[in-house]
């Protein structure tokens, strides 16, 4: 893997972009269920969009963007509405990350997918419908163009243009301060956690 | 907003702290795990040198990869065997209860937790599976999570979460004969769309909802996620309490009375505030079936596949993709569409009442020639209960195969799958491209009774005609 996996503060992602068009692209399409037969995520990268890629390999509209030579090494994925809907499988962002994706820009994201990406340090930013079409058009017109996604500024620039994006304040802060991996924060509040345990009657099986 | 709702009350009770990033640390009352999304989480714990903080709050079973023909170990598929062996080793190492094959309690995670009484009102429930929304049927706040979050729950019994808005789905009237909770939820998703619920929890309420059994409520909440809502719930009531009483993990004795009082106090009050409300009339809903490649592409069985002109402009590209993939003609009736495979089961519709409804259609009839039809009970308990009343005999006499419990052809991680361009009538929850194990396989979602009717007729059929006959 040329680029290391996300680590520490995520302030910007720079690289070429790959456009995967379409609304409601579900996680079964991002990683078909047969690839979930594994006990590690390591081998998932080449399987990203496996069935879509096979379908498009021989089609007039093909090959799939992930198979086009000009998109090898791309790190910014440009999508449309409700990307990542369906199954909660973290295998989906894991496959994208292991293929090389480090940030996703789309019109909207399914919630569990969005959270899974955040937990891996992959920012998902949104643009308006018109904005997204313009971004996708610019990226498609110049596949070699380098884009920079700026997390704090909530913007994408490249191909001599710049677009305003949206990222909610919480994820923005978590990414830019390196606190997107929640585990250590959750472990820091042991006392408050046990106080919560003490006030929930079902945890004491409703003892008087 | 959402003040006075069950969602708001349960959220507040489980709130541990505000985290630096602005999200909430939420205590998880019940954590369910299975073999697909947990191994990497346990591996991450090991890498971090962490243990399981509250092993008594995590419960495991095996469901996704189990074969439904022979469940003898080792499995014929070495990858499936490795996944189960890894789950067994992780549970043993961390003192986590595993309801394994042959225990009498194994089954699809969203079937067994309710039937064991593990799922209770007022809990937060998390599982590495999007259909965790099922457990909201009890008035729990239940949602699917990814594997990094499974790791977090194991390590800390909590999650970093953002609060959702609450939309009340108010349903008047009552479902007509031959129309089931599955039809209701497909109708809701058809109306509000597969992304309509993003950012919301769905509270299902109103006379039609109060009239549903617990199993019907589970079907409804199960598919909230297909409408984009990460959780769906129904306020706990006497139906909930009657279902829970006497189950292995439910409170008993004096504790039962205290539990009922607490559970009752959590229901959304008359002054509850909702961020949004949408109303439906259950009486007007027909048996509903999907024709396309998302659960939102649904129509009544008496309707025709929508044309582009009948489709909102921003939904047209998806409709065109669905016409191509499904090879269905816009404007053609969906009834009469030939099917190849009929699957009754899944966390949506693999419970006893689902099998009873399908058996009522199958009884005294026979599966059409050339159709493969099979029934996969949702759990070992469902299988035993169905066999005790002879449903397995009804199905096998009618030409259906009677299988062992598991997720089976809902997502085809086991040997049950479509071949090539086969088209299935399926009581499961997703009709995504490739979902049932063939990259070109096609899925029509419908109720278990409608699947049975399709199996008998060999084509999509209005089950009401068979019930009336």
Residue share in β-strands of chain A: 5-15%
Structural class of chain A: alpha/beta
- Report how far the terminal alpha carbons of chain A are from each other: 57 Å
Q: What pattern of helices and strands is seen along the backbone of chain A? A: EEHHEHEHEHEEEHHH
Helical content of chain B stands at 25-40%
What's the CATH first level of chain A? Alpha Beta
**Strands ordered across the widest β-sheet of chain A:** 1-6-7-8
The main sheet of chain B comes to: 5 strands, parallel
* Domain module count of chain A: 1
Number of strands of chain B: 19
Return the CATH architecture of chain A: Alpha-Beta Barrel
CATH topology of chain A: Aconitase, domain 4
Question: The CATH topology of the largest domain in chain B is what?
Answer: Aconitase, domain 3
Quaternary structure type:
heterodimer
Name the shape of chain A in a single word: globular
Mean pLDDT of chain A: 95
Fold blueprint:
The complex is a heterodimer of chains A (208) and B (469).
Chain A: E1 12-15, E2 17-19, H1 27-30, H2 50-57, E3 76-78, H3 91-99, E4 103-106, H4 111-120, E5 124-126, H5 129-141, E6 147-150, E7 155-158, E8 161-164, H6 169-176, H7 183-187, H8 190-199
Parallel strand pairs in A: 2-3, 3-4, 4-5
Antiparallel strand pairs in A: 1-6, 6-7, 7-8
Chain B: H1 6-14, E1 15-18, E2 24-27, E3 30-33, H2 39-48, E4 58-61, H3 78-94, E5 97-99, H4 109-115, E6 124-127, E7 141-144, H5 147-156, E8 158-161, E9 165-172, H6 181-192, E10 200-205, H7 207-210, H8 214-222, E11 231-234, H9 238-244, H10 254-266, E12 276-281, E13 288-290, E14 298-300, H11 316-326, E15 341-344, H12 346-349, H13 352-362, E16 372-375, H14 380-388, H15 391-397, E17 401-402, E18 423-426, E19 442-445, H16 448-457, H17 463-468
Parallel strand pairs in B: 3-4, 3-6, 4-5, 6-7, 9-10, 9-12, 10-11, 15-16, 15-18, 16-17, 18-19
Antiparallel strand pairs in B: 1-2, 2-8, 13-14
């Amino acid at each position: 893997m040329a680029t290391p996996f996300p680590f520490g503060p995520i302030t910007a992602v720079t690289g070429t972009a790959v456009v995967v068009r379409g609304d409601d692209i579900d996680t079964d399409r991002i990683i078909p269920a047969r690839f979930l037969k594994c006990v590690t995520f390591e081998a998932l990268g080449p399987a990203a969009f496996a069935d879509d890629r096979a379908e498009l390999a021989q089609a007039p509209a093909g090959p799939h963007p992930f198979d086009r030579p000009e998109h090898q090494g791309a790190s910014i994925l440009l999508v449309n509405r409700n990307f990542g809907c369906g199954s909660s499988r973290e295998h989906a962002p894991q496959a994208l990350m292991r293929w090389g994706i480090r940030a996703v820009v789309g019109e909207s994201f399914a919630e569990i997918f969005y959270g899974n990406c955040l937990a891996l340090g992959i920012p998902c930013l949104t643009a308006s419908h018109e904005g997204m079409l313009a971004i996708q058009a610019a990226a498609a017109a110049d596949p070699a163009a380098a884009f920079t996604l700026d997390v704090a500024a909530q913007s994408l620039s490249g191909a001599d243009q710049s677009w305003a994006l949206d990222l909610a304040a919480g994820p923005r802060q978590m990414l830019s301060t390196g606190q997107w991996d929640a585990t250590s924060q959750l472990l820091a509040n042991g006392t408050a956690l046990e106080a919560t345990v003490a006030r929930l009657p079902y945890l004491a099986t409703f003892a008087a | 907003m959402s003040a006075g709702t069950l969602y708001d009350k349960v959220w507040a009770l489980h709130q541990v702290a505000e985290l630096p990033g602005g999200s909430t640390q939420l205590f998880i009352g019940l954590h369910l795990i299975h073999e697909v999304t947990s191994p990497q989480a346990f591996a991450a714990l090991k890498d971090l040198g962490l243990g399981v903080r509250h092993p008594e709050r995590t419960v495991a079973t095996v469901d996704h990869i189990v074969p439904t023909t022979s469940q003898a170990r080792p499995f014929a598929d070495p990858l499936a065997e490795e996944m189960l062996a890894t789950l067994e080793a992780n549970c043993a190492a961390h003192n986590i209860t595993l309801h394994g094959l042959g225990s009498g309690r194994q089954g699809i995670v969203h079937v067994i937790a309710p039937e064991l009484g593990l799922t209770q009102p007022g809990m937060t429930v998390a599982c590495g599976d999007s259909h965790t929304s099922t457990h909201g049927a009890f008035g729990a706040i239940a949602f699917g999570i990814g594997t990094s979050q499974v790791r977090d729950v194991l390590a800390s019994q909590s999650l970093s979460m953002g609060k959702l808005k609450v939309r009340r789905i108010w349903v008047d009237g009552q479902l007509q004969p031959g129309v089931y909770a599955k039809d209701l939820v497909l109708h809701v998703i058809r109306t509000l769309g597969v992304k309509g619920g993003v950012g919301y929890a769905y509270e299902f309420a109103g006379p039609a909802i109060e009239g549903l059994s617990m199993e019907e409520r589970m079907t409804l909440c199960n598919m909230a996620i297909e409408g984009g809502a990460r959780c769906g719930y129904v306020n706990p009531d006497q139906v909930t309490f009657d279902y829970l009483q006497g189950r292995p993990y439910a409170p008993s004795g004096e504790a039962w009375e205290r539990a009922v009082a607490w559970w009752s106090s959590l229901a959304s009050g008359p002054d509850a505030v909702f961020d949004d409300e949408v109303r439906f009339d259950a009486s007007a809903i027909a048996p509903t079936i999907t024709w396309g490649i998302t659960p939102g592409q649904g129509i009544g069985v008496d309707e025709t596949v929508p044309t582009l002109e009948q489709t909102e402009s921003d939904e047209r590209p998806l409709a065109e993709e669905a016409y191509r993939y499904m090879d269905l003609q816009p404007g053609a009736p969906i009834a009469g569409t030939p099917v190849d495979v009929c699957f009754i089961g899944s966390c949506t519709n693999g419970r006893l009442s689902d099998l009873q409804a399908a058996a009522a259609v199958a009884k005294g009839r026979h599966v059409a020639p050339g159709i493969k039809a099979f029934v996969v009970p949702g759990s070992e308990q469902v299988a035993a209960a169905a066999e005790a009343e002879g449903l397995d005999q009804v199905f096998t006499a009618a030409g259906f195969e009677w299988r062992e419990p598991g997720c089976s052809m809902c997502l085809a991680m086991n040997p049950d799958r479509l071949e090539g361009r086969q088209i299935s009538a399926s009581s499961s929850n997703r009709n995504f491209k490739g979902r049932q194990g063939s990259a070109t396989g096609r899925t029509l979602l419908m109720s278990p009774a409608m699947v049975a009717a399709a199996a008998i007729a060999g084509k999509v059929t209005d089950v009401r005609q068979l019930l009336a006959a």
